[in-house]
Structures are given as C-alpha cells and as structure tokens.
Specification:
Blueprint: E1 3-7, E2 15-21, E3 32-39, E4 48-54, E5 58-64, E6 75-77, E7 102-104, E8 109-118, E9 121-129, E10 136-143, H1 147-150, E11 155-163, H2 177-183, E12 191-201, E13 204-214, E14 219-229, E15 234-242, E16 247-254, H3 261-264, E17 269-270, E18 274-284, E19 290-300, E20 308-320, E21 323-329, E22 332-341, E23 353-360, E24 366-371, E25 376-380, E26 385-390, H4 397-405, E27 412-415, E28 419-423, E29 430-439, E30 442-446, E31 460-464, E32 481-489, E33 492-497, E34 502-507, E35 517-523, E36 526-537
Antiparallel strand pairs: 1-2, 3-4, 4-5, 5-6, 7-8, 8-9, 9-10, 11-12, 12-13, 13-14, 15-16, 16-17, 16-18, 18-19, 20-36, 21-35, 22-32, 22-36, 23-24, 23-35, 24-30, 25-29, 26-28, 27-28, 27-29, 30-31, 32-33, 33-34
Length: 542
C-alpha cells in the first residue's frame, strides 16, 4: 500500500500526480504505507505528514522535498523514523492512523492521537511533543469499556474543533487564538471538539463523539455519540480543515458490495466530499422536560452543484398508497425531495413508508424511503442490545423511549418492566406479553431488488432520523417536513436526510440497461411530495 496523490482547485475535478509516499524495502514501512494525516502548522515552517508504517505498526514522518513546489509532488522520509517506534503497553488491538496534530498554547506542545484498543474496547492514544519529532505517550485521550458499543479497535481517528453557534464554524491548528477571536462574530460562541473513529461496532463503520477538550489536563469528555454514515459501504473516513471557506470536510472510503472487483480491475473509491456542521436539537421528553443534543450533519459540498445539468422539477404531488413515475431517467443524477407525512405507520412495521425508487425497471429497483413506526405494546425486539439501563419504580416505557432518543446511536428499544434495552441495528419484532418496544423514525434503503447479479449485496440499510423528536404519549412521531437528497453515480448511492443529520452510502449493481427510471411512492400510507427537483450530473473527469 502506498499514498496516491491528486490535486484540485474545486474538490470536484482532480488531476493525478505521481505516487507521493511509497514503501522502502527492508525498512520500517517495508510492508505498507498506511493511513496518516498532514499537519500544516509545524515548527519547521512547512507541512509534514505522519503516517503508519508496517510491519510492525510504527509512526513515521515525511516532509516536502521542495517546499517551493505548489503541488508538493515529492516527499522525503525523516532520518529519525520511526518517530513513534512502539505502541504503549496494554493496547493490543493495533496501533495506527495518526491524526493531524494540534497545538496547545497552555504548555506550548504539539499533540496527536493514534488509533488503538484492547479486549476492553477501542481507544485513542494521546502523544505530545515539543519539537514535532520526539513524541511522548501521555494517556488515552478516550478509551471505552464496552466492546458491544465500541468494538476493540478504533481506526482512522480525527480530532478537531467545531462551533455550535454558526454550525459550520470551527478552528484547527492553523489558526492562532487571536485569529480565532477575530473570526468569531460575537466573540462568545461555545466551542466543542469532535472525535471521529472507525470501529465496525453496533452495525456501523464510522462513529463520532461531540464533547469538551481541556488543554490543561489534556482530557476529552464526550456528551454525544453519533453515526457518520449508516451505510454498510462507508468506512475509514478522514477529514481536513478548509481555511479558505472556514469548514471541516470529510471523505469516506466507499467499499464494494459484490465479488466482481477482480473482473473490473479496480475496487473502492472516495465518497463525495461532505461539509461537517454542528447542530443543537432540542426535544420535549415524556415527563415534560426538554433535552438538547449536539449532533453533526454531513452534506455534500456546494462545489458539486457545478455538475448539475438538465433540471426538472415537480410540486405538490399527493400520494396515498400509490406510485408516480417521473419523466426523468439516468444512472448519474441528483434528486432533492421535500416531504410531509400525512398518515403514520400503524405498528413496528418498517416496510411502510414514502420515498423514491431509483435505477428502476421491470426487473430491478432500489427503494429509498422514510418510515415512521409507532410504539407497540406486547412486542419484543430480541438481539442487538448494546446497552441495558435499569429502571426504577414508576418508570414506564416512555422513560425507555426518552433514553433511546437522547442517544443518537440508538435505533430501537425494548422495555421489560425493570430495564430498558437500547438496540442498534434494528432487530425483527416478535410478540411478547410483558414487553413494549419502539423504533425511531428511519431512512430505509431496500436493496433486495437492486440487482440480478448473483453476488450483489441485497441487505437492507437503515439510518436513524436523529433530528426527529420522540413520539411522546401519542405514540406517533413528531414530524413536520422532511428533506432528502439522493446522489446516484452508477453503482454508488449516497442519501442525506434532514440537512445531512442522517446519511447512508451504499452500493447497487443493476444489470439491465433499462434500469434507469425514477419513481415516487407512498406504501401503506399517504404523503405529500411538496417539491421534487432532479438534475443529471456531468462526469467529474470525462
């Protein structure tokens, strides 16, 4: 494995350059140049990259061979490599993927984290340095004790600042505190930190935590756990700070969903670049209190609009257990929907919903829809419990429901009179005389008919609508309007709901040339498609 290199002026159109970092036979990275990160603001006065060399897993540095080269085409390995030659004792799962370093003015130190873990759970290990070459292990910046919720290894971590007040505002190591104060409009916006990890736990690849970082104790206290992307084909994302537009941008690795990569001669790709925003969602709980949750959204960068062409729109379409074929076809499109639900599901059945069929023909289709299940007394959701919370006397299933809604990782719950079981991903319901269960509003991607190819994945993808508030005593979700954006690019589908607070990336492999249709539908209920906009998309590298 080596580091490829490409450059772009707009994040959309890219020019490939020669390989940037390759292995050195017989050295510390002889078996691979693995994931790492670039830091711009180093004490050297030029950027550097710290990456994981294999084998064993050690951390290494490269710097530009010619700093006057605007493309930084060639890179030189540091003579002192590896700069972090071994992992600390007690962490056995791995030791890889260093982050971009940040500078703490309080002790004038550079800091970074490296992904690791052990049998107790995943961890990010904090290292500090005064000169960017000699690094000392301090402690885990965060470690867990629940393998069910967090897995045993955290890969590809990121750690960055983000401000709640402007949604898109954040500061990274390239801005001094003085510059940061000038950029804040009122000077008093609350700043949070985000830790992103790749963990393959509770059914999803990439997770995030929002919380507070203390530079004095160098500790991180998370308050929110969320999912970057609920799709089974999204993993190992990495982000960077775009100083020009004051935003954090993230890319994910889109993996394959079939066994035919060898025949095609390539495998995997990058997702669309997404801007990360921070939102505060406040909901009323069943006991009358109000609960606020800080959650991230991920939405495609605005530059992608340059690919739009052949615009088509529809408005005020009312569907009641029926479908509506759009007069647009294609395999590379962007679709934007504004939706309102008029009738809600009658039980835990998630097959009822409203949305759009893409890549549709008489033989194949992929169904993308929103489902709004009710709470159902007398049903259990066995399995997939990642957290059990004991309940006291007088606490009903409504307490369990509230606990699920304030945990953005929770997709469903079961109440059994004495405890609440938080679940993710969604299990299948079964009758139970003593249990009550509920499912949060979901984005469903049904791939069961997406392809006639025998090796294509057909599993159903489910993403939690984390920005939708709990249903309360009415047992009906509190939903106003919903928005959905769908990007189709041949075998890749990326879906963003409610401003990107829910995202799903998945792969489909239609085999028929005629599988290019679009169709709106409402199945088992009624819905209003207030606005439908469709663009065909140009190729980024024709």
């Amino acid at each position: 494995m080596v580091w490829g290199h490409a450059v772009s002026k707009d994040l959309v159109h890219w020019t490939h350059l020669p390989v940037a970092i390759s292995t050195t036979p017989g050295s510390y990275d002889k078996d691979g140049v693995w994931t790492g990160s670039m830091t711009i603001n180093t004490p050297f006065g030029f950027p550097s990259v710290i990456y994981t060399g294999v084998s064993p897993e050690v951390q290494c540095m490269v710097y530009p061979s010619n700093i006057s080269d605007p493309f930084l085409t060639n890179w030189t390995k540091l003579n002192q490599n590896p700069i972090i030659p071994s992992r600390p004792d007690g962490f056995t799962s791995g030791f890889r993927d260093p982050t971009t370093a940040w500078y703490d003015e309080v002790d004038q130190s550079y800091n970074l984290i490296v992904g690791s873990g052990n049998s107790a759970g995943g961890a990010t290990l904090l290292f500090t340095s005064q000169d960017f070459i000699s690094w000392k292990f301090l402690h885990p910046l965060l470690s867990t004790t629940s393998t069910a919720e967090w897995g045993t290894m955290w890969e590809c971590p990121d750690f960055f600042k983000i401000s709640l007040s402007l949604d898109h505002f954040m500061k990274n190591d390239r801005l001094t505190d003085q510059q940061y104060q000038r950029k804040k409009p009122n000077g008093d916006q609350e700043v949070f930190h985000v830790m992103k990890t790749s963990a393959h736990s509770i059914g999803y690849g990439d997770h995030y935590l929002v919380g507070k970082y203390d530079p004095l104790s160098k500790t991180f206290q998370p308050s929110t756990h969320g999912i970057v992307d609920y799709g089974s084909n999204y993993y190992a994302s990495k982000s960077f700070y775009d100083e020009a537009k004051d935003r954090q941008i993230i890319w994910g690795w889109v993996t394959e969903g079939d066994q035919s990569a060898g025949k095609r001669g390539w495998a995997g790709m990058s997702s669309l670049p997404r801007e990360i925003n921070l939102h505060e969602v406040t909901c009323s709980m069943s006991n009358g209190s109000r609960s606020s949750t800080n959650m991230l959204s991920f939405h495609p960068v605005e530059e992608l609009q340059s690919l739009r062409q052949n615009y088509t729109s529809y408005a005020d379409l009312q569907l009641n257990n029926q479908s509506y074929k759009l007069n647009v076809t294609g395999s590379s499109m962007e679709v934007s929907l504004s939706l309102t639900a008029n009738i809600f599901n009658t039980n835990l059945d998630t097959s009822q919903g409203f949305g759009i069929n893409v890549r549709k023909s008489a033989f194949e289709q992929t169904s993308i829809y929103i489902t709004l299940p009710r709470v159902q007394i007398g049903f259990d959701l066995p399995g997939n419990t990642y957290k059990t919370i004991p309940l006291g006397n007088g606490q009903s299933y409504l307490t369990c429901q509230d606990l699920c809604y304030v945990d953005t990782a929770c997709q469903a719950w079961t109440y059994d009179l004495t405890s609440c079981q938080l679940k993710s991903p969604l299990p299948n319901p079964v009758p139970s005389s003593v249990k009550t269960s509920g499912v949060r509003p979901l984005l469903i991607v049904d791939r069961s008919k997406s392809s006639l190819a025998p090796d294509a994945a057909r599993s159903i993808e489910r993403g939690t609508l984390t920005s939708v508030c709990p249903i309360g005593k009415s047992k009906v979700p509190r939903v106003d309007k919903l928005d959905m954006r769908v990007f189709l690019d041949e075998s890749v589908v990326e879906i963003y709901v409610n401003g990107g607070t829910t995202a799903v990336t998945t792969r489909i492999y239609p085999t028929k040339m005629e599988s290019i249709g679009l169709e709106l539908f409402a199945s088992g209920l009624a819905a209003s498609f207030d606005s439908v906009e469709v663009w065909k998309l140009l190729a980024t590298n024709p």
